[in-house]
Amino acid sequence: MSALILFRSLTYAQRGLYVLSRSGIPGKLIKAPRDLTDRGCAYGVLISDNRLAQAKEELAAQHAEYSSVWLRNALGEYHEAEP
User: Fold this and answer.
1) CB 28 within 8 A of CB 45
2) pTM across the whole model
3) Is the pLDDT of residue 83 over 80?
4) For a pLDDT cut of 70, what percent of the chain falls above it?
5) Euclidean distance between CA atoms 23 and 51, whole angstroms
6) Domain encompassing residue 22
7) Could you read off the pLDDT of 33-57 as tens digits, one per residue?
8) Dihedrals φ, ψ of 35, to 5°?
9) The domain spanning residue 18 has which CATH number?
10) Which of 47, 59, 62, 64 is the most exposed place for a label (fewest CB within 10 A)?
């Protein structure tokens, strides 16, 4: 499984990816699927779900705000994670 951390803009997502990569957490910047956000356009960082707790800690420590976290199962379906 993987986790998608959503940010409110491309700039915020790029900063989040930078923070995570400096912490040793590999990720991939992607445009979020439309059905995951009520805003027209959002971007996210896709990471391994087993690194999610560490990623959230690093983002909080660096004041890199994200809007939500989604877990993606093997079928590609997304489910919102607990905050």
Assistant:
1) yes
2) 0.90
3) no
4) 95
5) 11
6) 2-44+52-80
7) 877 777 667 899 999 999 999 999 9
8) -75, 0
9) 3.30.70
10) 62
| Continuous segment of H or E residues that includes residue 44 | strand 43-48
Tracing tokens 């930078």 back to the chain, one arrives at 18
Contact 68, 7 (CB under 8 A): no
**C-beta separation of 77 from 69 below 8 A:** no
Counting beta carbons within 10 angstroms of the beta carbon of residue 27, is it exposed (0 to 12), middle (13 to 18) or buried (19 or more)? buried
CB 3 within 8 A of CB 69: yes
Q: Is the alpha carbon torsion for 13, 67, 36, 5 positive or negative?
A: positive
Q: Band the pLDDT of 20: cuts 50, 70, 90.
A: very high
Q: How many domains does the chain have?
A: 1
Report the mean per-residue pLDDT for the chain: 92
